Amino acid sequence: MPTSLLSGRSRLPLFLLIVLDVLIAFGCAELAEYMRFGGHAVHYLNVMSVQALLVVIFSFVCDVYSPWRGRRLSERLLKVAGAWTLSFVALIAWMVMTKITGKYSRIWLGTWIITSIPLVVIVRFISYKLLMIFRRRGRNTRFVLVIGSGRNFDGVRKYFSKDNSYGFRLVHSIQHKNNAQALEELEAFLATGAVIDECWLCVPFHKQSALKPLMFAMRHSTANIRFMPGLQDLPLLNHNVTQIGNFVSLDISCSPMDGVNAIIKRLSDIVIGSLILILILPVMLVVAMAVKLSSPGPVFFKQLRNGAAGKQVEVYKFRSMKLHDESEDKVTQATRDDPRVTKVGAFIRRTSLDELPQFINVLQGRMSIVGPRPHALAHNEFYKDLVQSYMKRHKVKPGITGLAQVRGFRGETDTLEKMEQRVECDLEYLNTWSLWLDIKIIFWTMFKGFKDPNAY
């Protein structure tokens, strides 16, 4: 087997990727200085150093430096762009909080941002494309033995039996009909002396008794052994493995916002939420004045919603309706041409400006910028028995925007199907949560989440 840098058992060292990112950060900053000033500004080095450090930190947070093998190219490049974007957002927030923005050229900073992010994405794209070429030619490949049965086994065997750019090549497969037959075929294969890097056990859950004898038969092999039971067939999986005491659990329905993830989520809410609140404060003041002048009553509308773990929290909105009486156990959704909605209210609901005060809720820790939208308490009671896994959406804090909203499932839910589609998006968000997913949803919201014909 090949033993070079592009062999089956090696990958580009982590420190080289870090050095590459730092070089791009400093190089693009120097280029921006030359374009703006025609020379070098020594006192800009401190800002450049802070940004380079932030790039490395957020690249770790966004999982940029993890191995790329088996991951989609688009996913990896989006994570790279997200880490760099987040690093510049944090840099600007730091500059604002330390009151040093006046010392630096905004044109220089803008030039730095618009040159460095595309450049780093292009460099990563070229690197990965070259790696894909090598993998299709059999370099940087890991050889795989697959053992199993069922739909998942058939799918894995079909996909990895052909050339692929993921860097895995199927060298042998054993269909598990029964333990004795599978063990006999496995021992015969191992006796040939064939070298394998990975052994994938694609057996369904009801055949898990086969795992122990198969692993015992592989006891002399140094290959990575992975259990691939076909988890996509089960709803609401976070696909994590947790050790509880001396026992190992496969998490089926657990919140993704625990431990380190909870800290990352909260820090990103504070950093991004503070920056957004500073930027939208003038808009909020104008909206508040318009609401106050449009009809008698308070500027803010406050209502209880279910927060994380189902606990009730008070959520703020700009008031968009005339004052009216409604029982606590009944919430009438706004409909098209609803007479309760004021003229100003109709505009701010259509443009989602009524939800801007919820950034205050974010800083309070009651809500998150991204998450399932909070529904009225009465709606939760109504739908929790009608929509499968409805209450699972309360495993995390409710959000100002979410996956359902950017996909167009917002506004009135006048049919059960609409609520099912919204909840399906919320559960997908729970399943696949990452900081990068939050960044993408925020980005999508800027372009298509604020204005929607279904919001009235």
Description:
The chain has a 4-stranded parallel sheet. The protein has a two-stranded antiparallel sheet with strand order 5-6. It folds into 3 domains: 14-136, no CATH class; 142-233, Response regulator (Rossmann fold, 3-Layer(aba) Sandwich), CATH 3.40.50.2300; 260-449, no CATH class. The protein is an alpha/beta fold and 456 residues long. The model is unreliable at 1-11 (pLDDT under 50). It is flat, with a radius of gyration of 27 Å. α1 runs antiparallel to α4, α8 (260-294) packs antiparallel against α9 (343-350) and α8 (260-294) runs antiparallel to α10. Helices cover 48% and strands 11% of the residues.
**Low-confidence sequence ranges:** 1-11
Oligomer: single chain
**Main sheet specs:** 4 strands, parallel
Helix vs. strand class:
alpha/beta
Order of helices and strands: HHHHEHEHEHEEEHEEHHEHEHHH
Integer average pLDDT: 83
User: What is the total tally of β strands?
Assistant: 10
Residues in helices, as a percent range: 40-55%
Indicate how many domains the architecture comprises.
Answer: 3
Rg, please? 27 Å
What is the tally of helical segments? 14
How would the blueprint of this fold be written?
Elements: H1 14-37, H2 45-61, H3 73-97, H4 106-136, E1 142-148, H5 150-160, E2 168-175, H6 179-191, E3 198-202, H7 211-217, E4 224-227, E5 241-244, E6 247-250, H8 260-294, E7 300-306, E8 312-318, H9 343-350, H10 358-364, E9 368-370, H11 377-383, E10 399-401, H12 403-406, H13 416-432, H14 435-449
Parallel strand pairs: 1-2, 1-3, 3-4, 9-10
Antiparallel strand pairs: 5-6, 7-8
